[in-house]
């Protein structure tokens, strides 16, 4: 056994690897329910993915009966791949291969090493990968999130690329609350020197509001363009919608594209007077909501 997680007394999950009669290594999971341990079981679905050795990197439970396990397996091409398996309501579901996006799209080799679940169905896993399309092998650290019970794609952790394959990886990851995590480990730089590191992942966003002009003429308000921008504290591009309000009244809703968007003020939507305009980002499955500082808009006759 290599990992254990107990979200409450008498309710735990443990994971590890065992050798079969042919000395082949296989990952397993065992759970304790109300103080009674069940038998160790192979990771569900992993036999369909792997043709050889499998291993466990970590297991974590957001609540009793709701856990996640991650690790690695050898595929048909004898390449190491990462997997994630989730338990919900006391039932383990089939493991799925972790795939990458962005710079990690098409990565030939990945391995998930650690996982932490802040709550049921909301987990963060971290690991190592080989970058695709490089003449000299390049290695990178990655993170992959589960949100609301659905696993996303792995993304590169900025600043972690190295050409040295030795000792790179994570010692731990921790999340509290969901979407706000920190991880630490060891990385070998291009000169072969080892360094400890920490990396943060946060769902926190900031919303900015811009007005084309501070005044608009009643009946011709469409000449006023309102722009918004939503940024993440630790990178990434928030998506979703932003409601623009005059006081408590919504005057337009903007769909974000690349974290930005704009709208024109509808004609005669506001009576002549002075208004406090704010932009409210509603958040998404990945990012938290946020609101801009108010800006003043005067509608004249």
From TrEMBL:
Pfam families noted in UniProt: Big_3_5
An individual GO BP term: carbohydrate metabolic process
Domain Bacterial Ig-like stretches: 216-300
Entry protein name: Ig-like domain repeat protein
Record organism: Trebonia kvetii
Lineage: Bacteria, Bacillati, Actinomycetota, Actinomycetes, Streptosporangiales
């Amino acid at each position: 056994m290599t990992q254990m997680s107990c979200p409450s007394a008498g309710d735990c999950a443990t994971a590890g690897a065992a050798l079969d009669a042919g000395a082949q290594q296989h990952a397993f999971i065992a759970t304790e329910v109300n103080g009674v341990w069940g038998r160790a079981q192979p990771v569900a679905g992993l036999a369909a993915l792997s043709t050889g050795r499998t291993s466990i990197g970590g297991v974590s439970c957001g609540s009793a009966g709701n856990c996640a396990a991650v690790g690695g397996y050898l595929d048909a091409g004898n390449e190491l791949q990462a997997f994630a398996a989730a338990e919900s309501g006391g039932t383990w579901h089939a493991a799925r291969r972790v795939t990458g996006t962005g710079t990690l799209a098409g990565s030939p080799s990945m391995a998930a090493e650690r996982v932490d679940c802040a709550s049921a169905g909301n987990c963060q896993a971290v690991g190592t990968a080989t970058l695709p399309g490089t003449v000299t092998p390049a290695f990178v650290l990655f993170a992959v999130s589960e949100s609301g019970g659905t696993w996303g794609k792995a993304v590169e952790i900025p600043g972690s690329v190295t050409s040295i394959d030795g000792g790179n990886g994570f010692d731990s990851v921790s999340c509290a609350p969901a979407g706000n995590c920190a991880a630490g480990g060891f990385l070998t730089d291009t000169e072969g020197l080892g360094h400890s590191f920490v990396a943060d992942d946060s769902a926190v966003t900031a919303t900015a509001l811009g007005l084309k002009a501070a005044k608009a003429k009643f009946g011709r308000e469409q000449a006023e363009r309102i722009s918004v921008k939503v940024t993440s504290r630790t990178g990434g591009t928030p998506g979703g919608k932003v409601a623009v309000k005059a006081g408590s009244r919504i005057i337009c809703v903007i769909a974000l594209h690349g974290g930005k968007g704009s709208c024109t003020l509808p004609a005669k939507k506001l009576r002549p007077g002075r208004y406090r305009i704010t932009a409210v980002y509603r958040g998404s499955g990945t990012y938290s909501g946020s609101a801009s500082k108010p800006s003043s808009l005067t509608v004249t006759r």
